[in-house]
Design a protein that fits this description.
Layout: H1 6-21, H2 25-43, H3 49-52, H4 55-83, H5 87-100, H6 102-112, H7 116-144, H8 148-158, H9 162-172, H10 176-188, H11 191-201, H12 208-216, H13 223-235, H14 239-263, H15 266-270, H16 274-298
Helix pairs in contact: 1-14, 2-13, 2-14, 4-5, 4-8, 4-16, 5-6, 5-7, 5-11, 5-16, 6-7, 6-11, 6-12, 7-8, 7-9, 7-16, 8-9, 8-10, 8-16, 9-10, 9-14, 11-12
Length: about 300
């Protein structure tokens, strides 16, 4: 029903041991930033662009990403308004759920002039919901009866963080890993829209160019490497070689997810704003439902 992949196991172990080991999160972050780009580029060798070019998978993936982003943002803003959450916090929460978790929140926070406390509360909620989607998507995909292709697209379009989306794909097997990676990285490109959108939404004109550049700089530079690796695997290299390279990339994801787990303090995650938690949870549920419905119709 659900294969607990090595990445999933590593993340959960990291969370359990985080309080006992007490490793500095900044040290973890530096190690993650060093290994993650290489791992994702290597995973690019597992994505067959010929498969994405097919009308069925390519169109389904693109429409699912668009539906996910629109649903996450619109539901977050609407529910936040009902709950009385500040509109700038609502925008940051929507960006985290719709695009790429922590990176999206940190990219828009300066333009929205969020305080450290406000940003921290949103990041805590995004981390909790990211963990929830990461663990639930493989189970729900199996219950729905998704094929690995559909399951991979669903993981990439709903799980918040890049490493967790990839690990969810790993847990579902088949082409789910590569499609989860490709779909998630395509979704990350939504930063090109939400960063300037945050500037407009907050009605700030001063130093907007600087804030825009700061936000855009959060778009991962390994994206071109992932695309190039996919092109080499699709058109030049034999499958016997690309499979081994992709396998190496998936193995590198294990220590990354352990380090991410060690950075999460369970006690800190409990001290979050209840209205923000409610808004994030409801919008995440709506996002998952909308994207799953789209995949059922399109695939």
């Amino acid at each position: 029903m659900f294969s607990l992949g090595a990445g999933t196991f590593g993340l959960l172990c990291g969370i359990i041991l985080s309080d006992r080991l007490g490793i500095d999160p900044n040290t973890n972050k530096n190690c993650i930033n060093l290994i993650l780009p290489l791992a994702i580029i290597l995973l690019g060798f597992g994505l067959d662009l010929n498969m994405l070019a097919s009308n069925k998978i390519g169109v389904a993936g693109l429409y699912t990403i668009i539906i996910t982003i629109i649903t996450a943002f619109s539901c977050t803003l609407l529910i936040s308004r009902v709950l009385g959450i500040d509109r700038h916090q609502a925008f940051a929460l929507g960006a985290g759920g719709a695009i790429c978790g922590n990176s999206a929140v940190l990219a828009v926070a300066p333009s929205l002039r969020l305080s450290s406390k406000q940003t921290g509360s949103i990041l805590a909620v995004v981390n909790i919901l990211g963990l929830a989607t990461f663990l639930s998507v493989p189970l729900l995909a199996n219950a729905i009866g998704f094929e690995p292709e559909s399951a991979g697209i669903w993981a990439g379009s709903t799980v918040h963080a890049v490493p967790q989306a990839i690990a969810a794909g790993e847990a579902m097997g088949g082409d789910a890993l590569s499609l989860a990676s490709g779909t998630k990285l395509t979704r990350v490109l939504g930063l090109l829209i939400v960063v300037p959108g945050a500037i407009i939404y907050s009605s700030q004109k001063e130093k907007s160019g600087k804030k825009f550049s700061s936000g855009i700089s959060r778009i991962p530079l390994f994206l071109p490497g992932f695309i190039l690796a996919s092109m080499l695997a699709s058109f030049l290299l034999p499958e016997s070689i690309t499979q081994h390279i992709e396998r190496l990339g998936s193995l590198l994801m294990v220590p990354i997810l352990i380090l991410i787990g060690l950075s999460i303090r369970p006690r800190e995650l409990l001290n979050v704003s209840k209205p923000i938690m409610i808004a994030g949870s409801l919008s995440t549920a709506c996002m998952m439902l909308a994207s799953a419905t789209a995949l059922v119709i399109l695939m």
